[in-house]
Amino acid sequence: MIVFHIDVNSAYLSWEAVYRLQHGEKLDLRTVPSVIGGNEKNRHGIVLAKSIPAKKYGVRTGEPLVKARKKCPNLMSIPPRYELYMKASNALFQLLQEYSPFVQRFSVDECFLDYTRSNHLYGDPVQVAHSLRERIYQEFGFTVNIGVSSNKLLAKMASDFQKPNQVHTLFLAEVAQKMWPLPVSDLFMVGPATVRKLLKIGITTIGDLAHTDLGLLKAQLKSHGELIWRYANGLDDSPVHVGDYLPHRGVGNGSTIAFDVTDKRTAHKILLSLTEKVAMRLRASGYTAQVVAVAIKNSSFLRYSHQTKLSAPTDVTNEIYQTVCRLFDECWQKEPVRHLRVRVSDLKPCAESQLLIMGAKQHSKLQSIDRTVDKLRKKYGANVLIRGIFLHSGHKAVLGGVGEDDYKMMSSIL
DNA sequence: TCTGGGGTCCTAGGACCC
DNA sequence: TCTGGGGTCCTAGGACCC
Known about the structure:
Elements: E1 3-8, H1 11-22, E2 34-37, E3 47-50, H2 52-56, H3 65-71, E4 76-78, H4 82-96, E5 103-107, E6 110-114, H5 119-122, H6 125-140, E7 144-149, H7 152-159, E8 167-169, H8 175-178, H9 192-200, H10 206-210, H11 214-232, E9 250-261, H12 264-285, E10 287-298, E11 303-314, H13 317-331, E12 337-349, H14 360-380
Parallel strand pairs: 2-4, 7-8
Antiparallel strand pairs: 1-6, 1-7, 2-3, 5-6, 9-12, 10-11, 10-12
This protein binds a DNA duplex through helix 3, helix 9, helix 11, strand 9 and strand 11.
């Protein structure tokens, strides 16, 4: 197998920079300390993407803008434009398909491309990767890193080497020299919690991990131990998934609220606006759901959640919402709430949906109302129909979401 | 006005059944 | 009237990814 991993450098920031240059702006955001940052008034104030100059000041993705500014006082912060980023992402995805029909969209800014069967058509993979990289820059104006290897894990690790605008290889024979000296935290699927556990048994580099006894790792880290041991040794046999190969597992929508919620009525209103979007997206996906969950983050940043399995799957907004409210009431500890999330899972295709349950008539009536509302909202926008409860309430009727993501988000298993 | 949002997978523990 | 013990389902929480 020959796999490319294509990774857009500082994706949101690059796309924003290119857009601005194309619209007459003189300054290239990529050349100065800058970030794409959330709205601080709404308590969304974190770094979503950073330029390379900002990185040199120690600015990190995910950290509060306040903290980033302390490291870099003249940091520019630009609000995100998700629709633009989605368009750029789609354009890249389209272009990649010219090189192989086997392209897996891994996230908004990452794709895997299975080059195995393109090899005899287009020739040497490394040369092709270089021309692809150059072509993306010429046609789109943003840069990518491309990792080339014999499996997805190594291709992904390779694309993470020196940036930007580079092609790197990481074939099995190169693993010892190029990957083993790196800190173990650089390995895909090794996060902070795992780093702490590994440090306790004396593992600090990927090479250390690769040479550790598998039995010991399994004893300490269960199945995750085996996974990262295999990765450290460059082993991965997962295929490049195309199209809808991976089924949806659930649909969720959550939001940090601009103020702390301290009463049940307000909480229910926000939960309704979250549920509206979840149910719309569920219906659009053609699934019904049997598990409903509510998650709360309180003002101390403590998180907890509560879920239940319905007696029958549903895609009806009202049925989900009733359950959401019950779950919230059952688990809310009465402290100020910072963030709320609604999630449905245990999905079944719509066709399997029940017809002979109690109250089936009421259920199908609600279903047809929902579908009508969906159509109108699709045509005229989310605010064409607003529930009476939201009128003059100061709350948005449909809350959350980062643009219409009609692509699959990543899965943690390659 | 310090700390987002959307995913997936795994594990532990309790309930329940035979 | 000292105790079992698998198997499955369900829920909560944690870990990881971008």
